[in-house]
Design a protein that fits this description.
By secondary structure, this protein is mostly beta strands. The protein contains two helices and 15 strands. It has a single domain, classed as Lamin Tail domain (Immunoglobulin-like), CATH 2.60.40.1260.
């Protein structure tokens, strides 16, 4: 009898006690980005996407010799997929360089991993990134991407294995792309043209750390008809001094995907 009384008493005490929430179900408290908070915003994973990486450099028009090619003239494109405007000032972009091995896994083919973190400055025009707007982070003010939205002069993108993390002001992981254990997924410098690495718009399973999520800029000068029109229009933000052999779509929709990928995946 005493045991049952004790159990009932404990149950009554438990009924009167409110459990403390652990915070896991709390939503992200968005900063609206006003003068009072220094025009800053935070984010939520997936609401800003790394949509294009131009690691291959630029090629100047009507030029001969080694001075025509600039491997440091690179950019990264971001797209706001959130229904609210966001300010990217103070967000963190981390690039991890890695290593890959040949079939024999010889020690000579290894490179030590390292990483560099860049802090995004205020946008050049001071505005927020609107929903579905794309913006460009470029390295050179005098290069092929002179009307970029952000400039980071020491921005470098290696031509080997890389991983890339985008984190918001609160250091939440927003997007991750690439794989520092594998060669670059797409893009190219073939000695004639430099082409960017563009993200494929799959409905499901569009993870940036998979090579199937990326393709190389797909149009050419010899295209005709609608493809020729796309080739001209999509490169409209490449400076005219570089647009004959620098093929990328900064701030524009990505070029057509002819890889054969389809919308597939699961809801997990």
């Amino acid at each position: 009898m005493r045991i049952w009384v004790s159990i009932i008493a404990l149950c009554c005490v438990a009924c009167e006690t409110e459990p403390n929430p652990d915070g896991r179900a709390e939503s992200v408290g968005y900063r609206s980005g006003t003068a009072d908070d220094g025009y800053t915003s935070n984010g939520e994973r997936g609401n800003v996407e790394i949509s294009e990486i131009h690691w291959a450099g630029s090629v100047r028009n009507n030029c001969q010799g080694a001075d025509c090619y600039d491997a440091t003239d690179v950019f990264i494109e971001l797209k706001n997929r959130h229904p609210r405007p966001v300010f990217l000032k103070g967000w963190l972009l981390t690039i991890q360089t890695g290593f890959y091995t040949d079939g024999l896994r010889s020690a000579r083919s290894r490179r030590d991993r390292s990483q560099v973190t860049y802090v995004l400055p205020p946008r050049e025009n001071g505005r927020a990134v609107e929903p579905n707007e794309t913006v460009i982070i470029a390295a050179r003010r005098d290069g092929a991407f002179q009307d970029a939205d952000f400039f980071i002069e020491d921005l470098r993108i290696p031509d080997g294995p890389i991983g890339m993390d985008l984190k918001d002001l609160d250091e939440r992981l927003i997007d991750h792309i690439g794989d520092s254990r594998k060669p670059l997924f797409a893009g190219s410098w073939d000695g004639v043209t430099a082409r960017s690495m563009e993200r494929i718009q799959l409905i499901f399973n569009n993870r940036g750390n998979r090579d199937s999520a990326w393709h190389t800029y797909s149009l050419n000068d010899f295209d005709v008809g609608r493809r020729a029109e796309w080739h001209s229009r999509l490169r409209s933000r490449v400076h005219p001094d570089f647009n004959e052999r620098t093929f990328a779509t900064p701030g524009m929709p990505n070029s057509p995907d002819y890889s054969g990928n389809t919308s597939s995946g699961s809801f997990e």
